[in-house]
Design goal:
- This protein is an all-alpha fold and 182 residues long.
- It is built from 1 helix and no strands.
């Protein structure tokens, strides 16, 4: 029995089965496209994942080498740093000793300055006494000049070498210094 020899109700069953088969075939093709696309995506993601893992492994290996190199450098330089720190510690001890000596010297200088201040005060008083004595001497000389100058002036007329006849003969009086603030 061929497809044309089928009865009329068989035709409807035939078309139904054929439609179901065509529908199943379309679904299978869609499913194949989804599966193939998923398979390609999986392969791409697997290759990318493998690349990421190898890249990460390589980076970690380089990081390990760098850390190892840095550790060697730090170990090598650490002894030099320790030596420098020890030298600096010695210098700090020397500075502390020098500072203590300076403190004693400054205390001695302070004492000497105090004594000098006392001596300068004494010199000031002595200078004031001397100034008073000089003023007394000046008054005495002025008085002597007044008392003896007149009679001697007459004698000077007979002295050919005197030449005392200027516009300011003799002293004008005792000098009175201005009083200094204390």
């Amino acid at each position: 029995m061929g497809a044309k020899d089928m009865p009329a109700d068989g035709d409807s069953q035939y078309y139904e089965v054929k439609e179901e088969a065509d529908d199943a075939q379309r679904r299978a093709r869609r499913l194949e496209l989804i599966v193939y696309a998923s398979l390609v995506a999986f392969v791409v993601l697997a290759v990318y994942g493998f690349w990421l893992i190898t890249s990460l492994t390589r980076d970690v290996s380089q990081l390990t080498e760098e850390i190892s190199s840095m550790t060697r450098v730090v170990d090598r330089d650490m002894s030099a740093i320790v030596r420098h720190m020890e030298a600096m510690e010695g210098r700090m001890v020397d500075i502390a000793g020098s500072t203590a000596e300076m403190e004693q010297s400054v205390a001695s200088i302070s004492e000497d300055t105090g004594r000098m201040s006392t001596d300068i005060g004494s010199m000031t008083r002595d200078t004031e006494v001397m100034a008073g004595s000089v003023i007394g001497m000046q008054r005495d000389m002025w008085s002597l000049n007044r008392n003896v100058g007149g009679p001697m002036g007459m004698m000077n007329m007979f002295n050919p070498l005197s030449g005392q006849g200027g516009p300011y003969p003799g002293s004008g009086g005792p000098y009175r210094p201005p009083s200094a603030p204390r």
